[in-house]
């Protein structure tokens, strides 16, 4: 057998595993923080028409200018700020890492945090430093400040709310981090629609702050659209690394149309928030389950024998996320995305049955 790939490919890539997405065919899918609701039929019909008329033999608008204008208006992005679009916010994380990956440069995050920060840092040749959160998943500010002092990170990514814990970090603590770091801080607001707080106003205050958003959790995961919001002086640099035509024509057209009905997405987000409260309350009544607070569209909980429970749920056709063994703070933790009322009821009923069943 040839070991040519191993001799040619960078060792840190050889050591990585490809991002694994578990099969979910026919299952109740509560593992990936998707919005469980479809768009209303009338809007889907309009989308079909857009697709029919789209000139897909041509490349899309490389600047996506009309889409950016609508996004700025709809999301109340300050006029002074620029927007860069990505094929999901994952691509934006990659662009930021590529742009800052000087030899030995550090990308800092928190642990447990969003896995892609570490993975992308690694394949872009950066050193990833994950600063442990406190046991209640709050920011350990002293540890963060000490790590900043020691590692002088080029970039710090903070998800607000955090994935997989679901909580919002303390605003004051984040501000202290922005003030203390020599590089940039990217506040990743992927779950913004389900929280009542944002750093968008702070963009004016801090020249080293950038903000990331995505439409994936709001009901448009299949279209892949993420965005970076910040000062032009940063975005003109990052734009150099954005591949031409990274946002397809159908994504541009459909998002433009759906944003004209943004209230529909917001209503769906409001239903998800209401269902989140019901789901948390139900989980809390299951004796041995510890439920963590959530400002996102998912709920983290801890229970005995989490891995066995996860497998049992899977056997019953329900897919959630097993986090047991991924980090010491996540021992026996599972994460469930808020689904439709029916899906949540199915999940709770099945979980209750599994917990009542003796080994
Ligand atoms: N940031 C966070 C915190 C996330 O949890 C996710 C998705 N799991 C993303 C970014 C990536 O989202 P997108 O679909 O826009 O690539």
Automatic annotation (TrEMBL):
UniProt keyword Transferase, yes or no: yes
- UniProtKB keywords: Amino-acid biosynthesis, Aminotransferase, Histidine biosynthesis, Pyridoxal phosphate, Transferase
Q: Which GO biological process categories is it annotated with?
A: L-histidine biosynthetic process
Tell me which cofactor or cofactors this protein depends on.
pyridoxal 5'-phosphate
Spans traversing the lipid bilayer: none
Q: Name one GO molecular function term.
A: histidinol-phosphate transaminase activity
Q: Which residues carry this modification: N6-(pyridoxal phosphate)lysine?
A: 217
Q: Its pathway?
A: Amino-acid biosynthesis; L-histidine biosynthesis; L-histidine from 5-phospho-alpha-D-ribose 1-diphosphate: step 7/9
**Keyword Cytoplasm found:** no
Q: Which EC class is the enzyme in?
A: transferase
> Which EC number(s) does UniProt give?
2.6.1.9
Could you tell me which InterPro entries the record lists for this protein? Aminotransferase_I/II_large, HisP_aminotrans, PyrdxlP-dep_Trfase, PyrdxlP-dep_Trfase_major, PyrdxlP-dep_Trfase_small
Per the record, what are the reactions this protein catalyses? L-histidinol phosphate + 2-oxoglutarate = 3-(imidazol-4-yl)-2-oxopropyl phosphate + L-glutamate
Limits of the Aminotransferase class I/classII large domain: 27-350
> Can you tell me which family this protein belongs to?
Belongs to the class-II pyridoxal-phosphate-dependent aminotransferase family. Histidinol-phosphate aminotransferase subfamily.
**PANTHER family attached here?**
HISTIDINOL-PHOSPHATE AMINOTRANSFERASE (PTHR42885:SF2), HISTIDINOL-PHOSPHATE AMINOTRANSFERASE-RELATED (PTHR42885)
Cited NCBIfam families: hisC (TIGR01141)
Q: Entry's HAMAP family?
A: HisC_aminotrans_2
Q: What is this protein called?
A: Histidinol-phosphate aminotransferase
């Amino acid at each position: 057998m040839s070991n040519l790939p191993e001799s040619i490919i960078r060792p840190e890539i050889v050591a990585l595993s490809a991002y694994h997405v578990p099969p979910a065919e026919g299952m109740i899918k509560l593992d990936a923080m998707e919005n469980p609701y479809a768009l209303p039929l009338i809007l889907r019909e309009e989308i079909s028409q857009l697709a029919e008329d789209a000139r897909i033999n041509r490349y899309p608008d490389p600047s996506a200018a009309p889409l950016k204008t609508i996004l700025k208006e709809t999301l109340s992005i300050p006029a002074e700020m620029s927007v860069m679009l990505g094929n999901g916010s994952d691509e934006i994380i990659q662009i930021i890492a590529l742009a800052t990956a000087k030899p030995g440069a550090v990308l800092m995050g928190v642990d447990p945090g969003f896995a892609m920060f570490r993975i992308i840092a690694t394949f872009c040749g950066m050193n990833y430093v994950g600063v442990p959160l406190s046991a209640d998943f709050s920011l350990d500010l002293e540890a963060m400040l000490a790590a900043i002092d020691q590692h002088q990170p080029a970039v710090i990514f903070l998800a607000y709310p955090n994935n997989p814990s679901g909580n919002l970090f303390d605003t004051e603590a984040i501000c202290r981090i922005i003030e203390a770091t020599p590089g940039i801080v990217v506040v990743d607001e992927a779950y913004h629609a389900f929280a009542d707080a944002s750093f968008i106003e702070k963009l004016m205050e801090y020249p080293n702050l950038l903000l990331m958003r995505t439409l994936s959790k709001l009901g448009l995961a299949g279209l892949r659209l993420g965005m970076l919001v910040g000062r032009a002086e940063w975005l003109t640099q990052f734009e150099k690394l954005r591949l031409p035509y990274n946002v397809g024509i159908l994504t541009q057209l459909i998002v433009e149309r759906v944003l004209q009905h943004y209230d529909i997405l917001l209503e769906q987000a409001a239903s998800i928030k209401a269902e989140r409260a019901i789901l948390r309350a139900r989980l809390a009544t299951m004796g041995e389950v510890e439920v963590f607070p959530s400002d996102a569209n998912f709920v983290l909980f801890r229970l005995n024998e989490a891995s066995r429970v996860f497998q049992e749920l899977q056997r019953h056709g329900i897919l959630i996320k097993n986090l047991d063994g991924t980090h010491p703070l996540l021992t026996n933790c599972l994460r469930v995305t808020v689904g439709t009322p029916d899906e949540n009821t199915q999940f709770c009923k099945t979980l209750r049955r599994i917990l009542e069943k003796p080994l």
